[in-house]
Automatic annotation (TrEMBL):
Pfam name, any one: LUD_dom
Top-rank taxon: Eukaryota
Designated name of the protein: LUD domain-containing protein
Residues annotated as domain LUD: 19-141
Amino acid sequence: IGFIDYLIGETPYNNVRSTILAEKDLAKQAELRRTIGTTVDYFLTSMAAVTETGAMAHGDLTGSKVGGVAFGAKNVIVVVGSNKIVKDVDEAYKRTVEWCIPAASAFSRVAFKVPGTSMSHYELLLQANPFTPGRIQVLLVNEALGF
C-alpha cells in the first residue's frame, strides 16, 4: 500500500529506523537500536506466527524487535498475514526456526550485504500485559504477507 515508502519520505513522523541505519559504525548503530529503537511511541512490526488461540511468536538476532514488542515501545502495531496462522505454540516455534529465519537470512544477504542472519532471541506472547492493556494492537490480513 506504499506505507513504508511514505514513512521513509518526508513526513511529520521521526523515522527512527532510518536514523539507525544511517549510522555506519556498527557499535554506535547497536547502541541506537537499544536506546531509541525500542523506546519509540509507535512500533510497527509483524510476527513469524500467530496460533489459533491468539498467541504470537517471533525471533530476531539483536533483540531490538523483541525488546520493542516486549516492553520498550509505548504502542505496538502488529500486521500479520493469514499465511502465518498455525495450530499451536510448537508449530509457531517450528515455523519461526524452519521457515522465517532462513527467509530472513536470504533477505539480509541481498538487502544488507551480510552473510545472513540467525535467531538469538525468541519471544512468545501468550496474553496481553495486564499493566498495559491495549498497548499491542493486531491487524490480521486475509492474505499472505511476508515470510
